């Protein structure tokens, strides 16, 4: 069964297309681009995903080639809206951008199409039409990004997980739409995978957020540990932040364990989304090896490789 999936994903045996991707020294090199089937029409969208969402780009290499373009369109859209809070000087400007995307999705849903001259919007329109993407989940993604515009953190870890649900889980479910997977078990597994990936992602982006005078972590945990933004910027609260990170990492492990327990009942076609599990698991191991110090150079420099994804995909299970 695992070998069957790898053949479907690459449309050639293990020693063919997917294997040639795996042994490429640089997963983002021109050779990989050719192996991934990136042609002229989708090259811009693919490059946007490679540049801004490298992890998920690697996971798309294990999707059947017929679905990759629509996955790239979805992930490029997500990367575009995820950058809105960091790209504006005030919340009102960000909300204008969020509303623009709401209007675009409404126009696509109504059959009016995407605006000319915007390749990501046009690619998203093609994916929405071809794969019947759930419009409400796209709206939820936008709503989740909207809440980030005020720059505050989360009241507690439950609020952090609700945000992960509105963003990462919805993205995973939309990716399942692309892959034509709709059963409840696969969606449940994808939810736990997406939650673990999102929570870990929020830890990995702490250095970036601190540099931008933001701290997107649970306020109750920060207060209990005595961590402040000023204390992190001065280096004084770095050790205390490890305590907070360890508590969040425990929730990551919880979701990873639930996903793994349920994954045997998931649709094998969901694997390009479930591979986020491997991305989260590997990053979590690196974090643990650094004693949960999210400001450690080992965390900031970490970049996942393609071989662990190849192994999971070949096995066909988490």
Brief characterization of the structure:
This protein is mostly helical. Helix 4 packs across helix 5, helix 6 runs antiparallel to helix 11 and helix 8 packs antiparallel against helix 10. The radius of gyration is 19 Å and the shape is globular.
Distance between the termini: 14 Å
In the CATH hierarchy, what is the class?
A: Mainly Alpha
> In total, how many domains does the architecture comprise?
1
Q: Architecture in CATH?
A: Orthogonal Bundle
Which term fits the overall shape? globular
Explain what you see.
With 318 residues, the protein is an all-alpha fold. It has one domain: Farnesyl Diphosphate Synthase (Orthogonal Bundle), CATH 1.10.600. It is built from 20 helices and no strands. The protein has helices at residues 2-10, 17-22, 30-35, 43-52, 54-60, 65-82, 84-87, 91-109, 119-131, 135-146, 157-178, 184-204, 206-211, 219-225, 229-234, 238-262, 271-274, 276-289, 297-300, 307-315. Helix 6 runs antiparallel to helix 11.
